[in-house]
Please model this.
Amino acid sequence: MFTRNKKGPSLMTTVAMPVFSTKNETKNQGILLGVVGTDIPLQELMKIIPKHLLGIHGYAFAITNNSYILTHPDLKPLCQLTYCNTDEHHEHRSLSQIQAIKLYLTGRKPHIKCDRELIQEVLFDAVVTAPLEAYWTGLALNKSENSDKGVEIAYLGTCTGLSRTSLFVVPSHLSNQDFLMAEDKEGVFNADHFPLWYKRAAEQVPGTFVYSIPFGGNENKSVVLASTAIQLLDDRKSPIVASVGIQMKLDFFQRKFWTASRQCAALDGKCTISCDNEDIKCYLIDNNGFILVTEDYSQTGLFFGEVESAVMNKLLLMGSFKRITLYDYQALCREYAGSSDSARSISHPFSMVKWLLTKLVIFLLEFNLYSWWHVDLSVKAQRSRGKIMMVPCDTEYPAFVSECTIKETTGNIDCEGCARTFVIQQIPSSNLFMVVVDNKCDCSSAPLVSMDPIEIMYNESLKCDRLKFQKDRKWPESCHPFHPEENAMECGGAASLSAPLTAALLPLLATLISR
Model:
């Protein structure tokens, strides 16, 4: 069931129970008066769960006794609809100042129920992290530390949901203005999950930085996020209490990388060849295979297997990366409906009449006499754009993860008549890898390594089997046919004859007596 609030439609569930008579004279007779029930938004049920105690990757969901899902944080609706927000109390707009004060003083207090322990933890985090504001302010005032305005935002998040941010540029000059805002659902704390940058930092080895490019960034306004986790104690088994990071411009990050590579080539014995050499290609990828830095700016953010498929296949074969197959059972697939060949539609007699009438109307509207002698009757046989429908489907797609134990690897790829050499090395204290590929050999014929989802096609027999083996509705675990305090005298009335039954037996009795 759905209901609408100021944020749009929300799921609801019905809670019902029987109502029996509670009068003293009929209490032990079990007289059923009716059934009472109400509709409850699922959000109200989820508020009872202490989600902040579930951990970074934990989440809460609810199912029925028949294993049907009531609510789940990964539940995706079929269509994302936009609803206009309206004021709940539009009549308050016409109140005068005196009426507003009177309403405020006589109004009912809002029902607020807080988790006292959580509030105390948030206050503790606020006191401990308060010196960061002064530290960030000092960095912002020191122009020499950020003269080129490469670093834009510094942010901190604690395990209790407290967030602190500091801007090093004016808000209008931010490259990604949606970061840490309500519109960025994956980048802010909410009641269902931790931010994505917080979870990625917690997955890495303590003391290492996680570099990533947010999805959906524009080509000219891309940014790089660098985050690291903070532990309670200096121990690998110590719990993670916070995560801190910065947002920087992508071009600033790339300039730092190219500068460091040139400095390495200038030192004797460190780097024998520079990335400026035309015979090699240099890439900087993350632990999932996405490109952060490359000479071709248009390839930034792409998957490495789409650019260097031969090298990626070799890395998978060598064990430097491993492939993980993921499944999406709430995916949407495109389905074309109502499409047809335009030549066939013209050849149909009714379509021909419709086409002639359309031409006549256009002629009368435009009054173009030139079209009398130059009528284009040729039709190009091509598939017209039919209606595209999004239908639910199941898809599978690959994900790629690097092996942390492999720090450096070299390999050769046998292509058409040549061999291609590459080197991959992990950047210390980060999730990044530098890949240097020989550019002399062409391996474009290698099979493409893509991350595009593939629809899972089920045959008809499997669909029938699913319907056949669906679980029946689960009965209650216990049944109570009687109660010790219930009066059983009202159950069954065979001892007394009712009036209709007596009237039916009298003629039969009279017949027997007359015989």
